[in-house]
Write a structure and sequence with these properties.
globular, 10 helices, four-stranded antiparallel beta sheet, about 260 residues, alpha/beta
């Protein structure tokens, strides 16, 4: 469902601030894979996600989604293949619009997105059912402006909107990092439910090692723009944080130094 072939990306080339962000990165995801991505600051995690999304073009290499070469496609054209949830709960929804209006825009993705004709009764019933599944009481607040929701409610709504059209690939860019632990756990619970229910191929970046181990069927660890660990199946199920740290040190020859990941 996703293939990254020998990807290179350098920022500010030829300057004192030159940074090799992706260094010959290759990765292949099967249909339905739920891959968690862990690594220290500057490891290339978000750069990889942004390269897939088309936020910027890569210098070398090839990106394929479901067999289609999207390497040269601009971001807005790749959006037809992708669902994405960002770290900031304020991103991904329209704060001045109602919950049901946000859902209607997401539902009409890829079509002319006008609300002049309003939202039909059938659509309202569908949105009510979807919101009920979240278990956050939003089904009784469908005409509430999204800007009045809490961060966790907005992030849950964004997750629902990102998956409404069942994208070929779901990108989760530290989507619980800005939430308190209890709310983050709820959003991750909803993530598991939606991903498993709809069999979505998913890439989830996290700074939390326990979350990286607990969620998904596969875990990759990055450093210096490349993948140094790729663990799946039974090996991932048996993994502990200590095991992960030991394997990182063995593969990279250095200690893992991400304070955020270690403190979590």
């Amino acid at each position: 469902m996703l293939e990254l072939k020998n990807i290179y990306k350098t920022f500010n080339p030829g300057t004192i601030n030159e940074k090799l962000a992706l260094n010959g990165l290759s990765l292949s995801l099967k249909d339905g894979d739920f891959v968690t991505v862990i690594g220290g600051n500057g490891a290339g995690k978000s750069t990889m996600l942004n390269a897939v999304a088309g936020t910027w073009f890569v210098d070398e290499g090839q990106i394929l989604i479901d067999g289609t070469d999207v390497t040269k496609l601009p971001e807005y054209k790749r959006a037809a293949y992708l669902g994405r949830v960002f770290q900031d709960p304020m991103t991904g929804t329209a704060a001045t619009m109602e919950i049901q209006e946000n859902l209607a825009l997401a539902k009409r993705r890829g079509k002319p997105r006008f609300l002049r004709t309003g939202i039909s009764r059938k659509e309202r019933e569908e949105y009510h059912e979807l919101l009920t599944i979240l278990g956050l009481g939003l089904e009784s607040r469908m005409t509430t402006k999204v800007g009045l929701l809490s961060g966790g409610q907005r992030q849950a709504l964004t997750l629902l909107m990102a998956t409404l059209q069942k994208p070929k690939l779901l990108l989760l860019d530290e989507h619980t990092a800005a939430l308190d632990p209890k709310t983050a756990a709820k959003v991750l619970e909803l993530t598991d439910m939606i991903v498993n229910r709809d069999h979505l191929t998913t890439l989830m970046i996290t700074h939390n090692m326990k979350d990286a181990i607990r969620h998904g069927n596969r875990l990759i660890m990055m450093t210096e723009g490349r993948i140094i660990l790729d663990i799946e199946g039974e090996a991932k199920k048996k993994l502990t944080v200590r095991d992960l740290l030991d394997q990182f040190e063995h593969a990279s020859g250095e200690q893992f130094t991400s304070d955020a990941a270690l403190l979590n």
